[in-house]
Amino acid sequence: MNLEALLATGVGKGQAEKVFKNARLVNVFTGEILETGLAVTGGRVVGVGDYRGAEELDLQGRYVCPGFIDGHVHLESSMVTPAEFARGIVPQGTTTVIADPHEIANVCGVAGIEYMLAATAALPLTVYLMLPSCVPATSLETAGARLTATDLAPFCSHPRVLGLGEVMDINAVLAGQADMMAKLELCRDMVLDGHSPGLSGKELNTYILAGVRSDHECVHPAEAWERLRLGMHLMLRESSASKNLQSLLPVVTPFTARRCLLVTDDRHPAELLHEGHINHLVRLAVQAGLDPVTVIQMATINTAQYFGLKDLGALAPGYAADFLVLDNLEDFRPLRVYRRGLLVAENGRLLVEPAVHRETAVEHTLRLSPLQSDQLRLPALGSRARVIGLVPQQITTRKMEMKAPNHQGCFVADPLADVLKLAVIERHHGTGNVGKGLVSGFGLSGGAIASSVAHDSHNVVVIGANDTDMITAVAEVARLGGGLALARDGKVLGSLALPIAGLMSLKPLEEVEAELSCLRRLAFQMGVRPWYDPFMTLAFLALPVIPELKLTDLGLVDVREGSIVPVAIA
Amino acid sequence: MNLEALLATGVGKGQAEKVFKNARLVNVFTGEILETGLAVTGGRVVGVGDYRGAEELDLQGRYVCPGFIDGHVHLESSMVTPAEFARGIVPQGTTTVIADPHEIANVCGVAGIEYMLAATAALPLTVYLMLPSCVPATSLETAGARLTATDLAPFCSHPRVLGLGEVMDINAVLAGQADMMAKLELCRDMVLDGHSPGLSGKELNTYILAGVRSDHECVHPAEAWERLRLGMHLMLRESSASKNLQSLLPVVTPFTARRCLLVTDDRHPAELLHEGHINHLVRLAVQAGLDPVTVIQMATINTAQYFGLKDLGALAPGYAADFLVLDNLEDFRPLRVYRRGLLVAENGRLLVEPAVHRETAVEHTLRLSPLQSDQLRLPALGSRARVIGLVPQQITTRKMEMKAPNHQGCFVADPLADVLKLAVIERHHGTGNVGKGLVSGFGLSGGAIASSVAHDSHNVVVIGANDTDMITAVAEVARLGGGLALARDGKVLGSLALPIAGLMSLKPLEEVEAELSCLRRLAFQMGVRPWYDPFMTLAFLALPVIPELKLTDLGLVDVREGSIVPVAIA
After folding, report:
1. pLDDT at A241 over 90
2. Local structure of A570: helix, strand or coil
3. To the nearest whole angstrom, how far is the Cα of A293 from the nearest Cα of chain B?
4. N or C: which end of chain A has fewer CB within 10 A?
C-alpha cells in the first residue's frame, strides 16, 4: 500500500487497521523503552503514539521489540524444508533471515538457488539470499555444479538477492583469479560477505580491499578487533558446531556495537528445537551482562543496516510491522510474533501453515551405481599409512602416519586397532569416483554409517568396520534418494530420508529431530565415542578446506599442502 | 583501479604508491586512536599497518582523520562558484558535500541542476546532489521554474545524485498531492531528506511514513528526540542564519550518536572565511565536551552511512583516501588535506586550481524591464496598513496593523515613522509583477537596497526610503545581471555583481567577502539597525514559508493563512 492509499485510510488523521496499545516499545534508535502505542496498516507501522484502530489490542505493558534477523544462515543445516525451518524459527522470534544456499547450490547448482527462492517466496518469514560464491569450494573434489559469475548474474536483479555469500576462496581473491574477480565485480554494489578464519595483516587488508565487509568466522577477540578496525562488520556466530558468541562479547562496546550482528550460520534440528534460534543468542548475550537494547540492536537494526534493508529492524513509520510481544527482556521466548502486522505465532507455535514448495529438480538427485566391493579396496605398499586422526570437539583433524591393519595387501578396518575405513563416493554425475581412507578415533565396533550430507560437495560419505556393511549403508542412502543410514551385519538398522538434494527431509522438524536422535543413539550403541556427534563428524570428514587430513571422492587431501596424497606410505 | 590492477602493483604483498607512516589514526569504527601507517594506491586506502611505499611520508605522530562530509548544504549561499566554494572549504577539511541546488533550481530549473553537476564534476571536492523537491517552494510567488517528478527523473541515474532534497512542502505530503507523491515514488529507493520545522505527533509520523528519513530543522532537543525515536536521522545544523548545534548536543548519546550528522545548510562568505565549515561544527561540539571521535563520526562515517556512500567516511581498505592531517583534536584546522591520496591543501590554502565551469544558461538570467515609478504606487484605502514587523535575530516577522504614512492617497516610506517601502519584482519571465509592502524596524534613514538573492524564488527584492532610490538600486541589479546594490540620492553607492543566476559571483571568495563587508558597512551608514544583517534580512523578507507576513511578486503573504492579503486596511 503506497502513501496515497494509506492516507486514504485515515492514517494521517490517526486511524489505523490495528493498534497495539500500552506497549513497552524497545526503541532501537535511542536505546529507550517507551510506553506507547503502535499503529499498523497494510502490514506496515504507520505511527507510534496514541492512535485509534479498527482493531485495538491492549498489550498491558508488555514489551514489543522488532522481529529478529539472522544475518547469515545455511538453512539446509536444519535438515528440513524452508517451510519447516520457518515453522521452527518464527515462533522463536526470527522474522527475517539472510540465507546463503551454499549447500544446495553445491548439489544442484542454479536449480538449487531457484528452489530456495521459490520455496521461500510465500513463508511467514522473510528470506533474503546471498549468492553462493564458492561452488565448488575447492578443486580437490567433485561437486554437483560449478557456478561462475555468468551463472550468478541473472539472480542479482532478484528483489530478495542481496549480494555475494561468504567468500571462502581467499586464495582466489588474493591471487586475483579471474572468475573470483568477476564475481566480486558482479556484486560490487551489493553486499559481500566474508569467511576468513585466521586471516590477518596484509592478507586481511587485501581481502577487505576486494570489497568484503563482514566476517562470521572470528573465534578470538583479537581477530574480531582486527576486523572491526579495518571496517568489517562482525557477525557473532553461535552455530551448532561453532559456539563463538560468548568469547566475542567483550568486543562489543558503545562504539563497535553498531557494526556487530548476530548470526547462526548452521543450526541443527536439536538446537533449533531445544535452544532456539537468534533468540538463543540474544538470551546468551543478555545473560552475559550486555545491555538488552544493545543486544536487540545486534539482532535487528544493525543487521538490517548492514544489508541495506531500509524498512526492517525497527518499529517506526514505514517499517515492516514485524515484531515480538515479550513479557520480559530475559528469556526472549515471544508470547506472540507478528509479521507484516499479522499474528503468525503464539506461545511457541506457528499459527499459519507455511506453504511447502516441491521441485523435482532438487529431489532424488543421487546418481549412484551400486557400490562394488572392489571399489573399496585400499592397496597397501607396506604396513604404514596416512590416517585421519579425529580431534574431540573440533572439525579439524590430525594427519597421522602409523602402522595400519592390513589384509592380503590391502588396508582394512580394525576396530580393535581403532582404525576404520572411510569412503567418499561421487554422487552427482555417476563418475564412479570413490575416495578411500582410514580414520582413527571414531570408535565404531562394527557396522557402518553413511550420509549424503558431507560438506561442501555433499558426496556420499561412509565410515565402517567392514566393507559389506559400508556397501549396505550406501545402498540404503541410494534407495532413499539421499539421507543417513546405519547398517550392521548386512542389515539396515535405521535410516533417515533426505530427498531434497540429499540434504533435507520432507518431514516436520520435530519428526526429523526424533529420528535423528534415534539414529544418534544407535550410532553410540554401535560404538561411536560419546564426545562425537556421529553425523556432524562424518559430514566434516569430507570438507577439504579444514586442516589437516580430509577425504574427498578424488582421494585423501592434505589440506595444508592443498593436494591429494596417497594413503599408503611406501 | 580494480582489485586485479591493485594486486598487480604488489599491494597484497605490502607495496603501495604512498605510505603515511607514524600516524595517529582516528578509527571511526572502534573509537580508538591507533598509531599505525596508511597505505594508498590509486586514490584508495589499500592497507592499514606497516607498509612500504614508492613514496613514504613520516607523519611524526600527527593525527589522521577521514575527510569531513557536509550532509546538507545549499552551496549557492556561499555566493561564489562551486570552484571557489571548494577553494574555501577543502582547506578546512571538508572533502565531500551533499548539496541541494534548491536556489539555482528555483531560478534556472533543470539547467540549474545541470550546471551544478557540471561545475562540480572536476573539483578537489566530491559533490553529491539531492534533487530539489519543492520548486517552486509555494504557489504564492513566481519562481523561475516548476520542477515536476518528470523533470527530476532523468537525474536519478546520475552517479552523483543521491535522492530527493529537503521535502519542504509538508502539506503536499500530508494531503497526498499527486506531484509530490510522484517525486517520493521516484526516489523511493534513494535517500529522502526532510525539512519539518515544528512538525510533531501524527503529522510527523505521516511525514516519516512517506519515506523521509532526516531533518535538519530541529531547534529544541525535544524536537530532536521525537524525530530520532521515529527513525529519522538528526542533522545538527550550524548555518549562518540558524545556529542550532549547541542546543542539540545533549541529544547525542552512545545510542543516538550513530544517527546524528553535522550539516551547514547555508554558510555565507564571512562565516566560511572566519569560522570555517564542518570543522567549525566539529570544534564547537568538542569544545562543548563531546568525545572527539564521536564528533568526528558525526562528520564522517555517520553521514556516509546515511547516504549509502560505502567508500567514504572512514580510513580502511577500499575507502577513498580522503583525509586530514591534524596536530591536535581541538582546533580542527588541518595542517594538510588529502583527497583521493593527493595533497590538495596545506595550512589553510588550496594547492590545486579548481576548474571554473562557465555555462551561459545560468548567467545573466534577469528578465527585468526598467521599473517605472507608478509600479511602486501603493494605494491606501484609509490610514491603516498591514506592515511587516522585523524581529531581531529571527527570520520570522510580525504581522503589524498600524497607521502608516500616506501621501496623496498612497502609502509611502517614512524613515522617521520607522516605515520603509518594500517591493519584490518578478525577474524570471518578464511578467512585470511587482509586489509592494511596508516594513518596520529595518532602519534605513534614506536610499534603497536591492538584491536578486531573495529566498526561495529569487525575484528582485528592494527596500527603500523613497521610490527613486529603489528604482536606481533595481536598475543597478539589472545592469549587473543580478547582484546587490545600494543607492542614495539617485546614485549607486555600491554594488556586487552576482551574474550566476543572480546568486553567485564569479570572483574569489575573499573578494566577495571584502565587497560584501563594504556594502554591509555602507548599509549601516545608511541607517540599517546594527542587529540585522542587511542582505540576509532582505533575502528572507521574500520567503513566504516563514511566518507571519512576507512579500512576494504576487503581493503581501499572510503565511499562516497561506494567502495574499492587501496592504491597505479598509
Report:
1. no
2. coil
3. 9
4. C
Confidence band, pLDDT 50/70/90 cuts, at residue A449: very high
Q: Check: CB of residue B495 under 8 Å from CB of residue B486.
A: yes
Q: Do B256 and A32 touch (CB under 8 A)?
A: no
Q: Residue A249 — φ and ψ, nearest 5°? A: -55, -35
- A221 beta partners: none
Q: Is A333 helix (H, G, I), strand (E, B) or coil?
A: coil
Over the range A538-554, which residues count as b (16 or more CB within 10 Å of their CB) and which as e? bbbbbbbbebbbbbbbb
Q: Strand (E) positions, A168-294?
A: 191-194, 214-215, 233-237, 260-263
Copy the grid coordinates of residue A371.
Answer: 557400490
Statement: residue B137 has pLDDT above 90: no
Tens of pLDDT, residues B366-404: 999 899 999 999 999 999 999 999 998 778 899 999 999
* pLDDT bucket at A526, cuts 50 / 70 / 90: very high
Q: How many CB atoms within 10 Å of residue B460?
A: 28
- Mean pLDDT over each residue of chain A, to the nearest integer: 96
B-chain CB neighbours of A34 within 8 Å are 229
Residue A478: alpha-carbon gap to chain centroid: 24
Q: Looking at residues A313-325, what average pLDDT do you find?
A: 98
Quote the CA–CA distance of B493 and B523 in Å, as a whole number.
10
Contacts of A229 in chain B (CB under 8 A): 27, 29-30, 32, 34, 48, 316
Beta bridge partners of B55: B18
- Please report the number of interchain residue pairs, chain A to chain B, with beta-carbon separation below 8 angstroms: 164
Cell of B356: 571554473
Average pLDDT over residues B66-80: 98
Q: What is the pLDDT of residues B24-43, one digit of tens each?
A: 999 999 999 999 999 999 99
Note whether B231 contacts A51, CB cutoff 8 Å: no
Selecting from A201, A228, A319 the residue whose C-beta is nearest the C-beta of B49 gives A201
Measured in angstroms, the CA of A219 and the nearest CA of chain B are apart by 18
Look-up of cell digits 503468525: A344
CA distance B213 to chain A (A): 10
Q: What DSSP character marks residue B379?
A: B
Which residues are CB-neighbours of B236 under 8 A, at least 6 positions away?
Answer: B216, B218, B244, B245, B248, B249, B252, B260, B261, B262, B263, B281, B285, B298
Lookup result for grid cell 513463508: A123
Compute the distance between CA of residue B160 and CA of residue A326 in angstroms, rounded to an integer.
44
At A464, list the grid cell: 565402517
Q: Which residue among A185, A213, A317 places its CB closest to the CB of B205?
A: A317
In this predicted model, what pLDDT tens digit does every residue of B196-248 receive, in sequence order?
A: 998 999 999 999 999 999 999 999 999 999 999 999 999 999 998 888 999 99
Could A231 and B259 be called an inter-chain contact, meaning their C-beta atoms sit closer than 8 Å?
Answer: no
Per cent of chain B over pLDDT 70 is: 100
Q: Which are the contacts of A140, defined by CB distance < 8 A and separation ≥ 6?
A: A544, A552, A554, A557, A562, A563, A564
pLDDT in tens, A141-163: 999 999 999 999 999 999 999 99
Q: What is the mean pLDDT of residues B510-537?
A: 96
CB contact under 8 A, B185 and A2: yes
Q: How far is B201 from chain A (nearest CA, A)?
A: 8
CB contact under 8 A, B308 and A308: yes
- Closest B-chain CA to A210: B3
Q: How far is CA A523 from CA A270, A452, B71, in A?
A: 16, 16, 62
pTM above 0.90, yes or no: yes
List of chain A residues whose C-beta atoms are within 8 Å of the C-beta of residue B3: 173, 176, 181, 184, 209-211
Judge: B46–A316 Cβ closer than 8 Å, yes or no: no
The confidence score (pLDDT) of residue B289 equals 97
